[in-house]
Design brief:
The chain is of the alpha/beta class. α5 links the parallel β4 and β5.
Length: about 400
C-alpha cells in the first residue's frame, strides 16, 4: 500500500485556515498536519484541537515558542532599535521567520513533502513565510492557497464553509472582518473603516491599550534591568524574556502607551493603513536607547543609527535569515557586553519619561561633564578642534 504524503499547515483554528485545511484535503492526496506556533497570541487551544479534529486531522501540534520568540527574535531587533518608516516596531514581521522555521522543523520530523500558509496574495506575510521556508527547507514544496484557488471573495469562502460544515463567526458573515494579527509583542488591526485613511480609528478596535484619556491619573514606575544589552528582569527581580515582555505589556497598556496609526509601504508595492499596539515593545525601545546612552561610545551608537533603517527594512521584507541582516546584527551587537545596568521609567497617560539610568560603565564621566570641575577636560584643545572643522566647510 502506497504511503500517504503529508502537508504541514500553519493553522490558527479560525475560519480562513479551517477552509484552507479542508481545501488541501480535497485537492491534494495528502494527510494534513495542523501546526500552531504559540508566540503569545490570544488563542483557544481547545478550539484549535476541536476544529482540526472535526475536519479529520490526526496530528495537531501546538508549539510553545514564547521565550524563544522574545529572546532570539524580539531582543536582537530591539538591540538594533528597528523602526520601519520611522514608527512601526515590526511586530508581525518579526514573528513570521520563527513560525516558518519551526513549521519546517515539523515538516522534516514527519517527512512532509509540503508546507502551507494562510497569507493572502496582497500581503507581506506570504513573502516572510516563504523566504523562511526556503532558507530551512529549500526542497520542501510550498502551497499558497490564496494565490491558486478559485475562491475569489468573502462570499465564496462563506459558501465553502457552509458546504463543509465549518463554523462561521458572526462578525465574518457579510462584510469582511478586521484583519487582526497578534503575538506577545504586538497587535495589528487592518481593514473595514481603517482602509480609508481619512477615518479615525474607532476606540473599540484597540485590544491591549487604554486610551490615554482613560489611563490612570497616577503614574506607574518601572525599572528594567540589563545584562549584555538584553533585559534580564524588572525592579531587580529576574524574569524570563516572555515574562518581562508580558509584564511590560500590562503596565504600558494600562497607561495608554504603544499605539501607532500608520500608512505603510508594503514590500509588494501597495500602501496599506494599519493600527498597531506595541505597549511593552515601546518601553523596551525607549529604555534600551537610554541604557546605551550611558554605556556606549558615540561612534558605536551613531553607527547603529546609521544601519537601523536598512536593518528595519530587511526585517519588514522578510529577510531575517539573509546574509545582510546577519552582517548588520554583528554591527548592532559589537559592544553589547558593555550594555549593563538599569533604567527607571515613568508611565503616565500615553507618555514615557526616563527617570534614571544606572550603570557601572565609565563611558559617561561626571567629572568631564560637570560645570563645577574643569581639570579633566582641556578646553584649550577646543579651539584647534573648531579650526580643523572650519577647513571642512570649504
Amino acid at each position: 500500500m502506497k504511503k500517504q504524503k503529508k502537508i504541514v499547515l500553519a493553522y490558527s483554528g479560525g475560519l480562513d485556515t479551517s477552509i484552507i485545511l479542508k481545501w488541501l484535503q480535497e485537492n491534494y492526496d495528502a494527510e494534513v498536519i495542523a501546526y500552531t506556533a504559540d508566540v503569545g497570541q490570544e488563542m483557544d487551544r481547545n478550539k484549535i484541537i476541536k476544529n482540526a479534529k472535526k475536519l479529520g486531522v490526526k496530528k495537531i501540534i501546538i508549539q510553545d515558542l514564547k521565550n524563544i520568540f522574545v529572546k532570539d527574535y524580539v531582543y536582537p531587533m530591539i538591540r538594533g532599535h528597528a523602526l520601519y518608516e520611522g514608527v512601526y516596531l515590526l511586530g508581525t514581521s518579526i514573528a513570521r521567520p520563527l513560525i516558518a522555521k519551526d513549521q519546517i522543523r515539523v515538516a522534516k520530523k514527519f517527512n512532509a513533502y509540503a508546507v502551507s500558509h494562510g497569507s493572502t496574495g496582497k500581503g507581506n506575510d506570504q513573502v516572510r513565510f516563504e523566504l523562511g521556508y526556503h532558507y530551512f527547507g529549500p526542497k520542501i514544496k510550498i502551497i499558497a492557497p490564496w494565490r491558486i484557488w478559485k475562491l475569489k471573495s468573502r462570499t465564496d469562502l462563506i459558501n465553502y464553509a457552509k458546504k463543509h460544515g465549518i463554523p462561521i463567526p458572526k462578525d465574518k458573515k457579510g462584510a469582511p472582518p478586521f484583519s487582526v494579527d497578534d503575538n506577545l509583542f504586538h497587535t495589528s488591526t487592518e481593514g473595514k473603516v481603517l482602509e480609508n485613511p481619512k477615518n479615525s480609528a474607532p476606540e473599540f478596535i484597540f485590544q491591549r491599550t487604554n486610551s490615554p484619556e482613560k489611563a490612570p491619573n497616577k503614574p506607574t514606575f518601572i525599572t528594567i534591568n540589563y545584562k549584555n544589552s538584553d533585559p534580564i528582569g524588572l525592579n531587580g527581580k529576574k524574569l524570563s524574556p516572555a515574562k518581562v515582555l508580558d509584564k511590560l505589556n500590562q503596565l504600558a497598556g494600562k497607561n495608554g502607551i504603544g499605539r501607532v496609526d500608520l500608512v505603510e509601504n508594503r514590500f509588494i508595492g501597495i500602501k496599506s493603513r494599519g493600527v498597531y499596539e506595541t505597549p511593552g515593545g515601546t518601553l523596551l525601545l525607549i529604555a534600551h536607547r537610554a541604557i546605551e546612552s550611558v554605556t556606549l561610545d558615540k561612534d558605536t551608537m551613531h553607527k547603529k543609527d546609521e544601519v537601523m533603517p536598512r536593518y528595519a527594512e530587511l526585517v519588514y521584507n522578510g529577510y531575517w535569515y539573509s546574509k545582510e541582516r546577519f552582517k548588520l546584527q554583528k554591527i548592532v551587537d559589537l559592544k553589547k557586553n558593555k550594555v549593563n545596568g538599569s533604567v527607571k521609567l515613568k508611565l503616565y497617560k500615553g507618555n514615557v519619561t526616563i527617570q534614571s539610568r544606572q550603570t557601572s560603565s565609565n563611558a559617561y564621566s561626571m567629572k568631564k561633564v560637570s560645570f563645577e570641575e574643569n581639570k579633566t577636560f582641556n578646553k584649550s584643545n577646543v579651539e584647534r578642534f573648531i579650526n580643523f572643522h572650519k577647513k571642512k566647510l570649504r
